[in-house]
Amino acid sequence: MVGQGLEPELQAINSESVSGLPAGEDRPQYFKQVFAKQKWHKPYADALMEGDTQKLASAIAKAERAIFNRYLELSTAEDHSDERMDLCRAVEALRELKRGLDSADTRTPAVT
After folding, report:
1. Residue 56's Cα: distance from chain center in Å?
2. Mutual orientation of helices 81-107 and 53-74 as an angle, nearest 10°?
3. Per residue in 39-88, pLDDT tens?
4. Full-prediction pTM beyond 0.85?
5. 82-109 CB burial, b ≥16 within 10 A, e <16
6. Alpha-carbon distance 50 to 47, whole Å?
7. DSSP characters over 61-86
């Protein structure tokens, strides 16, 4: 709303009648569930941020196990399609990391 400090695009976020969202006191609990930190996030982030190539393969393996375990948990749950998509993207990112690690191994001459 012009003059009231809200952009028109943000007005719906401030209103109580956002379609599809619970109203009133149920809203904070809804957002806790939507933005919940999952167990697989930390090992995944650790793998992405690992700078030591000697430790990277291990970090990737830990992340893959955590992601696989979450897939198993979600196999019996309803919906969670957004998180499943996040898991797929994480697997792709880890696959790219492994490709980079494999290509770095082939370029590095063996020390004798």
Report:
1. 19
2. 160
3. 999 999 999 999 999 999 999 999 999 999 999 999 988 888 889 999 99
4. no
5. ebeebbeebbeebeebbeeeeeeeeeee
6. 5
7. HHHHHHHHHHHHHHTTSS--HHHHHH
Copy the structure tokens of residue 80.
């969670």
Q: Give yes or no for a contact between 59 and 50, defined as CB atoms under 8 angstroms apart.
A: yes
Q: Which residues contact 53 (CB under 8 A, 6 or more apart)?
A: 101, 104
Q: Where are the domains of the chain?
A: 38-112
Give the C-alpha distances (Å, rounded to integers) separating 63 from 97, 99, 108: 12, 16, 25
Q: How far is 107 from 102, CA to CA, in rounded Å?
A: 9
Q: Whole-angstrom Cα distance, residue 78 to residue 13?
A: 26
Of 19 and 56, the structure prediction assigns the larger pLDDT to 56
Q: Is the pLDDT of residue 20 over 50?
A: yes
